[in-house]
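Appendix B, example 12.
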Amino acid sequence: MQTHKKGMYSTKNRLMNAMVALGNQKGFLETSVTEICEMAEVNRSTFYRNYESKDSLLRELEATYLQAIDLLCQGYHTVNFMDEETVLKNCRSIAGKIYAFHMESKETFRFLMSPNCDPYFRDRLMRLLRFHFTKLICANMSSPPAAINYATGFISGGIIDCLYQWIQKQDIAEDTFEDIVTRLIVSSVQCCLNI
């Protein structure tokens, strides 16, 4: 039974990886199920046993990606912004895990953020980040201001755009990028806490 599950997981991974590779080469809309199957070395019947269409494959890839980000961002919930000595260190530790994940899955992120892929993916990612930053801010103040939506929107949108730009260019070292964005997050949250 476990072998079957392992084989199923491997098949789904191969299909997702093939879709990402082809999508980054020629675009999601221009990629066919046949091409995905050929690259993944999977029969079309196996594809359709797992997915109704390439859109359902895309939805599972998005869900898998967002689930990983959700788990990584939960670390922010425990950061105490009142402890100035450890806040930067703790945020950098969490951010390091998030950036490491993106370095491992940068082709997937590039594909999911592509303008010819799912136009609503960025919005779903932004809502997820806003949820986590709202929770972080609310955990660090007794009465969150009405402006919290603006602050979390600013932080989340900025992170997404910076990360996408950096993955496209990779013009500065990973640790430098991580440090810059971490400091921007900490400064933005501290600014919100002082409103």
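The longest helix spans residues 2-26. The chain is about 75% helix and 0% strand.
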